[in-house]
Amino acid sequence: MGKERKENKEKSVDPAVKKLLKKSSREGVETIWDRSDGQTPHCRYGEQGLCCHICYMGPCRISFKGKGPKKGVCGATAEVIVARNFARMIAAGAAAHSDHGREVAQTLLSAAKDSDSGYSIKDTNKLKKVARVLGADVEDRPKEDIAFEVAKRSIENFGQQVGEVDFIKNAPETRQALWRKLNVAPRGIDREIVETMHRTNMGVDHDHQNIMLQAARTALADGWGGSMIATELQDILFGTPSPLRGQVNLGVLSEEDVNIIVHGHEPVLSEMLVAASRDKDLLDLAKSKGAKGINLAGICCTANEILLRHGLPIAGNILQQELALSTGAVDAMIVDVQCIMPSLPEISKYYHTKIVSTSSKAKIVGAIHYEFSERNALETAKEIIREAIENFPNRDNVDIPKEKMDLIAGFSHEAINYMLGGRFRESYVPLNDNVINGRIKGVAGIVGCCNPKVTHDRSHVSLVEELIGNNILVVQTGCSAIACAKAGFLIPESAEKHAGRGLAEVCKAVGMPPVLHSGSCVDNSRILIALSEMVRVGGLGKDISELPVAGAAPEWMSEKAISIGHYFVASGVFTIFGVGLPVIGSKTFSDHIFKEFEKIFGGMWATEPDPSKMAALIIDHINEKRRNLGIAKGKERVLYDMEMRRELEI
Ligand code: NFS
Q1: Which of 22, 35, 446, 650 is a good FRET partner for 187, with 20 to 30 A between their CA atoms?
Q2: Reduced to 3 states, what is the DSSP secondary structure of residue 571?
Q3: Could you identify the atom of ligand 1 that is nearest to the CA of residue 447?
Q4: Once rounded to an integer, what is the mean pLDDT over residues 525-541?
Q5: Helices assigned H by DSSP within 401-486
Q6: Model confidence over 595-629: pLDDT tens digits?
């Protein structure tokens, strides 16, 4: 792989990336692809999950070749080593998502308590809906009181020692019953993460199956806990997304405006930057420096957040963060937490960009630090934007690629409900009906990162193209959504061009694209709720595991993706990861999560690096679920009569 990768592998399918890679190379700027090449061949023990550095009697490795060691120094077998490593990835991923959720809950608490906090409650309907799930009284109470209780109860979900995380009540009854039977219903978010870290210490849990049950409880504490708290409470604070138009790719940067990129994950920061970027004094200051205005664009999941709620442009996904600087047109890149490369200040030395860190949890040597909190949010946001404006005249060596693409985003669970059922009878019934009649064969959640070990964006784009061509409706989040948006799949016209006949008919009737952008990675919780709603509406079985659905992360790299994968599997979804999985070093462990898991959870893991084979696995799985439901034979094309049209009309 290493040799092939260095010499033949295309680095990206995105022309904007290719152009800027040439520019970077000409200018002697080292990028992630250079460093990735420098790491090849990757350590095989690490790639297969067979390296153990949990204690210092090692590090140990397991080798199945010749006389190499078959056990760690302590006696740990391959399956124990792999299980501990995998569970720790899940705990780390769950911690990242959940800490994000905690910040949001604390922001909601400030908004409820303190009218000067700079944050307020934007979506009262959502507030009431969430409050009801949490068992809070909503009648005749000021919204601040309800919000206070929602925030407090959400914060308690983190430290709770017994009981159950509240939002698992959003899952179908049968699924909740299974979790209780297996003893994996999460008690408290922090508790499950801590217990996984304890159990995977040297000398504690030595049963790979038992470790994976706790890992499931931890992942569920993420998907149905921390991530869901992040999504639901962000909707309350910043508004529930509904479909809107936007633009994507590095061509959204402007020669005439002050370009500010906001990069990271938490909208608590980006929402304030959006507000500050519209400040009249700052706009005047920008003009006084020779700029036309202020252009705020995003990278990574923060990009998805500001797109979904404000229609602001996305400059790119994770692998484009360094290249954005290479355009020479970014006056400041403002970062908070997660997926931020430590190389940014180094690259900024070649250009004029200021890298601004804002979280006490995430400082970078070489960046300017502006501490950001709910208390000083707007003022800090304005100061940072002022830095960017002052930097505008220092631009030099500007070369912005022309590539940019339109997209529609904002398909929250609520928006899908409304879009399909209309204002007066919001419902998933039309979706289920179209799945039952075979126009839509099934639904696939295609999510996750990009990874320089494989061609950037290629697997996302080719997998999604094949799925929609086979009448599978695709729901997306994270960097995968950005990849497919750049390829032009997220506009309604793409139904005509790329979707199969049945799916195209539905898209046309509703006016939606065949690929629905649902948000950032914490918004994968929206997909969990959508799946639960499909079960609740009826006709497709009693549990998520019976639905003709699947999930995939074709270019994953982050521990967060592993946590997402595991909570989808533990929720009953067949989930495939591309690139590779650090588990294949143990056949016993791989068989457990690739095969035996289906009998335990009704969902299982798979790994397949080839996007076309991945598509085939998803299509086969969906067809099998359709056969089990007795809906395998989709009706031949039926011309719409008036009643069917009404059903599909908004
Ligand atoms: Ni998700 Fe968002 Fe992208 Fe991967 Fe990183 S930005 S939280 S982890 S790389 S999809």
Answers
A1: 446
A2: coil
A3: 10
A4: 96
A5: 413-421, 429-436, 458-469, 478-486
A6: 999 999 999 999 999 999 999 999 999 999 999 99
CA of 301 to the centre of ligand 1 (A): 6
The residue contributing the CA closest to ligand 1 atom 4 is 449
How far does the centroid of ligand 1 lie from the alpha carbon of residue 413, in Å?
20
Handedness of CA 16, 22, 23, 29 (dihedral sign): positive
Contact (Cβ atoms closer than 8 angstroms) between residue 311 and residue 327 = no
* Cβ 153 vs Cβ 109: under 8 Å: no
Joined together, the tokens standing for residue 322 give: 């360094």
Give me the count of residues in the chain: 650
Kindly list the structural domains of the chain, giving each domain's residue range(s) and its CATH number in brackets, ordered by start: 42-72 (no CATH), 78-238 (1.20.1270.30), 250-394 (3.40.50.2030), 409-629 (3.40.50.2030)
pLDDT of residue 423: 55
Ligand 1 shell residues, CB under 6 Å: 265, 300-301, 317-318, 339, 448-449, 478-479, 520-521, 558, 560-561
Of 397, 381, 392, 400, residue with least CA distance to 286:
392
Answer whether 572's CB lies under 8 Å from 545's CB: yes
Query: pLDDT over 90 for what percent of the chain?
Result: 89
| Encoded amino acid at 255, one letter | E
pLDDT at 642: 52
Over 90: is that where the pLDDT of 116 sits? no
Q: In this structure, what token pair is assigned to residue 324?
A: 């954005």
Q: How, if at all, do strands 574-577 and 549-553 pair?
A: parallel
| Strands ordered across the beta sheet of 314-316 | 368-369, 354-357, 332-335, 258-263, 294-299, 314-316, 244-248, 405-409
Q: Residue 463: how many CB atoms within 10 A of its CB?
A: 29
Place of tokens 């470790």: 211
Please tell me the predicted confidence (pLDDT) of residue 424.
Answer: 58
**Contact status, residue 165 vs residue 225, Cβ threshold 8 Å:** yes
Of ligand 1's atoms, which has the minimum distance to the CA of residue 339?
Answer: 5
* pTM of the model as a whole: 0.95
Residue 93 near residue 222, CB atoms below 8 Å: yes
* Angle in degrees, 0-180, between the axes of helices 300-310 and 478-486, rounded to the nearest 10: 70
Evaluate whether 506 touches 440 at the Cβ level (below 8 Å).
Answer: yes
Residue 366: left (phi > 0), alpha (psi -120 to 50), or beta?
left
- The alpha carbon of 299 and the centre of ligand 1 are apart by a number of angstroms equal to 10
Spatial CA neighbour of 21 closest among 401, 369, 497, 280: 401
Cα first-last separation, the chain? 50
What is the rounded distance in angstroms from the CA atom of residue 191 to the CA atom of residue 186?
9
The per-residue b/e assignment along 516-528, b for 16 or more CB within 10 angstroms, e otherwise, is bbbbbbbbbbbbb
Q: Among 355, 351, 343, which residue's Cα sits nearest to residue 398?
A: 351
Judge if the upstream peptide bond of residue 452 is cis by omega within 30 degrees of 0: no
